[in-house]
């Protein structure tokens, strides 16, 4: 049964908790989230933890952290696929009762012997169970699996919202196992039952699942359930056009947080990775929710481009609210296992954000610019900056500090004081700025001298100048 048009949109992401959250899984989650939110629907999270040997609580926690960092909030509680195993088994037996499935008593040895013989004789190794049409009266008292009765003629057609019309020859599909002999469901059955029970209307997932859609459609049809809209999206490749792997760099979501990429920039870049809205490159999350559609997804694999990612992240850092940026910066420090901010550092950074955001592409860039606000007295200048603190420069700083004691603390009052001090010593302001940078920040690349003085405040500024002098 095809999906009815009136149903409200419900999408899902269903990662397996067997390791870190892959960046490809994150993009798939993002596409599902954007589509659901843009249509006023629901976005659900299912943890496919049926592989008990490989599934770990740590991996589940990593998935939840990755989703939370990216800002992909899900509706309701996360569902455990393993906990639904009795429901999956019940559906398998219901298919049996409907005549859509059958008990197969073939042993692994028999199946393997058939395949070896077929391979040696260069015949098809597709296994056709002799139990498909066997009289139940002939069933032995032995372990069995439940296989679905797949159609053996004609075609199964998938109308995919991304890939278009895809057809599969039924004579090339075997009767897949839906329930193992130990009573546990296979993935192919479990995913369909879960999607049906959760009311999923659109299955948006990687195109490596496209072949699965043919088999899963048969389960929907056997149970008389509505078939969701299929949308199989291309995978992410590395810059070299090969499937993304560790050799290309970071592949786990949490790695990107620990490297200092802002979440808004990641959302923007991952949305644009394989989807387009005209020529728009930089856009907000609200715009993405409004614009995102399945028609804009391309069929070719998207290539990860770190330069584009950094450029977009830089634009998002510059456009962020200061308070939100400071909050996310603290999340980065935790993810990167760096020391947390002290109250003094937090207050200074809050005041300094306006002069740190421009041209910072990642949080490490921003922290480097913020060194003046993060360090404490006595400031130790680095080797290059120390050269700007010679005897003459220190003498100038000594004459400057008394002038800074009174008056308002603003650029308008500081500018004439510094300009006048430079002129009295027969130098331009640039020559004065170098020792000031060394004294205030301990380095040569900093925000403007005025910005640093305003952020640090009168007392700290004078103290640092006196230390250097």
Automatic annotation (TrEMBL):
GO molecular function ontology, one term from the record: zinc ion binding
EC number(s) stated in the UniProt entry for this protein: 6.1.1.17
Family matches, as Pfam families: Anticodon_2, tRNA-synt_1c
Motif 'KMSKS' region mapped to chain: 243-247
GO annotation (BP), single: glutamyl-tRNA aminoacylation
The Aminoacyl-tRNA synthetase class I anticodon-binding domain, residue ranges: 338-468
Catalytic reaction equation(s): tRNA(Glu) + L-glutamate + ATP = L-glutamyl-tRNA(Glu) + AMP + diphosphate
Chain location of the short sequence motif 'HIGH' region per the record: 15-25
Chain positions recorded as ATP binding sites: 246
Chief subcellular location: cytoplasm
Subcellular locations according to the entry: Cytoplasm
Assembly and binders: Monomer.
Function: Catalyzes the attachment of glutamate to tRNA(Glu) in a two-step reaction: glutamate is first activated by ATP to form Glu-AMP and then transferred to the acceptor end of tRNA(Glu).
Name of the protein in question: Glutamate--tRNA ligase
Originating species: Pseudorhodobacter turbinis
């Amino acid at each position: 049964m095809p999906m009815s048009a009136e149903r409200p949109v419900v999408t899902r992401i269903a990662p397996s908790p067997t390791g870190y959250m892959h960046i490809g899984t994150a993009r798939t989650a993002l596409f599902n989230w954007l589509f659901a939110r843009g249509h006023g629907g629901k976005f659900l999270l299912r943890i496919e933890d049926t592989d008990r040997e490989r599934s770990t609580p740590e991996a589940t926690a990593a998935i939840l952290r990755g989703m939370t960092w990216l800002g992909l909030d899900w509706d309701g509680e996360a569902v455990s696929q393993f906990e639904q195993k009795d429901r999956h088994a019940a559906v398998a037996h219901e298919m049996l009762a409907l005549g859509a499935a059958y008990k197969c008593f073939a042993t692994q040895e028999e199946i393997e012997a058939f395949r070896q013989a077929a391979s040696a004789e260069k015949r098809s190794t597709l296994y056709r169970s002799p139990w498909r049409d066997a009289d139940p009266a002939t069933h032995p008292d032995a372990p069995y699996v439940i296989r679905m009765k797949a159609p053996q003629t004609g075609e199964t057609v998938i109308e995919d919202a991304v890939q278009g019309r895809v057809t599969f020859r039924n004579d090339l599909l075997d009767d897949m196992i839906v329930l193992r002999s130990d009573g546990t469901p296979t993935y192919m059955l479990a995913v369909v039952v879960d999607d049906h029970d959760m009311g999923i209307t659109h299955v948006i997932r990687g195109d490596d699942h496209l072949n699965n859609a043919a088999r899963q459609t048969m389960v929907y049809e056997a149970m008389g359930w509505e078939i969701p809209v299929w949308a199989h999206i291309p995978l992410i490749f590395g810059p070299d056009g090969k499937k993304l792997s560790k050799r290309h760099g970071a592949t786990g979501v949490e790695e990107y947080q620990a490297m200092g990429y802002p979440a808004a920039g990641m959302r923007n870049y991952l949305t644009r990775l394989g989807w387009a809205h005209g020529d728009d490159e930089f856009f907000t999350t609200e715009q993405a929710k409004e614009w995102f559609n399945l028609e804009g997804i391309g069929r070719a694999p998207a290539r990860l481009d770190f330069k584009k990612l950094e450029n977009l992240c830089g634009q998002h850092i510059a456009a962020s609210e200061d308070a939100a940026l400071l909050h996310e910066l603290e999340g980065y420090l935790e993810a990167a296992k760096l020391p947390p901010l002290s109250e003094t550092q937090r207050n200074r950074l809050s005041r300094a954000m306006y002069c740190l955001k421009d041209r910072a592409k990642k949080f490490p860039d921003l922290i480097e610019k913020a060194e003046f606000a993060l360090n404490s007295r006595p400031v130790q200048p680095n080797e290059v900056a120390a050269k700007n603190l010679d005897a003459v420069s220190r003498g100038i700083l000594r004459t400057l500090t008394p002038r800074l004691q009174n008056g308002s603390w603003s650029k308008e009052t500081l500018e004439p004081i510094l300009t006048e001090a430079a002129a009295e010593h027969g130098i331009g302001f640039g020559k004065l700025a170098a020792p000031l940078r060394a004294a205030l920040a301990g380095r040569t690349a900093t925000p403007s001298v005025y910005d640093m003085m305003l952020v640090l405040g009168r007392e700290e500024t004078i103290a640092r100048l006196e230390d250097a002098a």
